[in-house]
């Protein structure tokens, strides 16, 4: 049996009223008596009446929905961002349609094609690792779709962007390891062309420079899939630890890689921090429950989601197109635990 939602016509038939009377009563029109409004609203509530979103979108020329594209919902960082997005969107009467790119350029293009076909009012996106051609995003932007980038942004598109202070976060993590006596600090970062990777690498290099430690290119490694492909990560780590001069600490450049590297160390029976220290970007709520508890750079993901959504809704609801855009930078917090202690 097919479910069919109750309509204004159904309410009108049941109560012996005209559809226009029911419509006005639901809109709290002054033309309808208080008694009639009460009868109509009670019946509508009892029968779970909800306005037809398609009809509303045609009337308002809006779908009251926004699209969100992230790499992976299971990633704690992005799940917290989505919580922040929803905390604002639903309170403002917008539905949220979420898609995952799984770090694939082709998947991202398909996601955007689907979302555009649903007539979304705006888009929030953190671009995939594989994405180096942004024509699909430029096309939507040129057609007037409001877009806000968060975390991973596109410099060539002029719009609001909400990012983390990646450079300072990486700088503080690297300096912390140095202060704890570690000398050969490796960095394993996400895709080399990524905006995030560049910021984190800059912070890492500046920390070395400020502390008179020579930069060693052999200690810098990249994972094109951001740690989602464990075999790739394993190969990168094998190449790092096959050197004569091995690292004594590793700085991991993403949430997924931090957990993957910890898994690698356990598989090689390398004890953290006795044999190797580890610091990484991670928003995992279980980081302090691991053995040892992980030192992490924690990002304000929930606040990022909220801010990006506020900026997007501002664009959507603006009567005139705003050509002044924000590049909003949020701080990252170094949370020190056992994995970076010198034994």
Automatic annotation (TrEMBL):
UniProt-listed PROSITE patterns: HTH_CROC1, HTH_LACI_2
UniProt entry keywords in alphabetical sequence: DNA-binding, Transcription, Transcription regulation
InterPro entries in the record: Cro/C1-type_HTH (IPR001387), HTH_LacI (IPR000843), LacI/GalR-like_sensor (IPR046335), Lambda_DNA-bd_dom_sf (IPR010982), Peripla_BP_I (IPR028082)
An annotated Gene Ontology molecular function: DNA binding
Transmembrane region(s): none
Top-level division of the source organism's lineage: Bacteria
Residue ranges annotated for the HTH cro/C1-type domain, each copy included: 6-50
Domain HTH lacI-type residues, every copy: 6-60
Pfam families the record matches: LacI, Peripla_BP_3
PANTHER family assigned to the protein according to its UniProt record, in alphabetical order: HTH-TYPE TRANSCRIPTIONAL REGULATOR GALS, LACI-RELATED TRANSCRIPTIONAL REPRESSOR
Protein name: LacI family DNA-binding transcriptional regulator
Classification lineage: Bacteria, Pseudomonadati, Bacteroidota, Chitinophagia, Chitinophagales
């Amino acid at each position: 049996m097919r479910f069919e939602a109750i309509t204004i016509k159904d309410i009108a038939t049941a109560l012996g009223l005209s559809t226009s009377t029911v419509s006005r009563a639901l809109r709290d029109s002054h033309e309808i008596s208080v008694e009639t409004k009460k009868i109509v609203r009670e019946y509508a509530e009892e029968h779970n009446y909800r306005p037809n979103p398609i009809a509303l979108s045609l009337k308002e020329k809006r779908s009251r929905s926004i699209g969100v594209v992230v790499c992976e919902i299971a990633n704690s960082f992005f799940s917290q961002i989505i919580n922040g997005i929803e905390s604002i969107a639903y309170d403002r009467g917008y539905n949220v349609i979420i898609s995952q790119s799984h770090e694939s350029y082709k998947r991202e293009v398909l996601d955007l094609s689907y979302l555009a076909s649903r007539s979304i009012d705006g888009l929030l996106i953190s671009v995939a690792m594989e994405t180096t051609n942004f024509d699909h995003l430029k096309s939507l932007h040129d057609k007037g779709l409001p877009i806000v980038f968060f975390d991973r942004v596109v410099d060539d598109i002029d719009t609001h962007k909400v990012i983390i202070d990646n450079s300072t976060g990486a700088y503080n993590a690297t300096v912390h390891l140095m202060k704890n006596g570690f000398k050969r600090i490796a960095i394993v970062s996400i895709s080399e062309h990524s905006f995030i990777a560049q910021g984190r690498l800059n912070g890492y290099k500046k920390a070395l420079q400020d502390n008179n430690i020579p930069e060693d290119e052999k200690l810098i490694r990249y994972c094109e899939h951001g740690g989602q492909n464990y075999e790739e990560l394993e190969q990168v780590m094998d190449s790092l630890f096959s050197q004569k001069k091995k690292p004594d600490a590793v700085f991991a450049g993403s949430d997924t890689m931090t957990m993957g590297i910890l898994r690698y160390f356990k598989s090689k029976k390398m004890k953290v921090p006795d044999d190797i220290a580890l610091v990484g970007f991670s928003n995992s709520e279980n980081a302090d429950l691991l053995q040892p508890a992980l030192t992490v750079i924690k990002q304000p993901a929930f606040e990022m989601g909220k801010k990006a959504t506020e900026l997007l809704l501002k664009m959507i609801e603006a009567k005139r197109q705003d050509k002044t855009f924000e590049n909003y930078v949020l701080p990252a917090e170094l949370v020190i635990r056992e994995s970076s202690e010198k034994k």
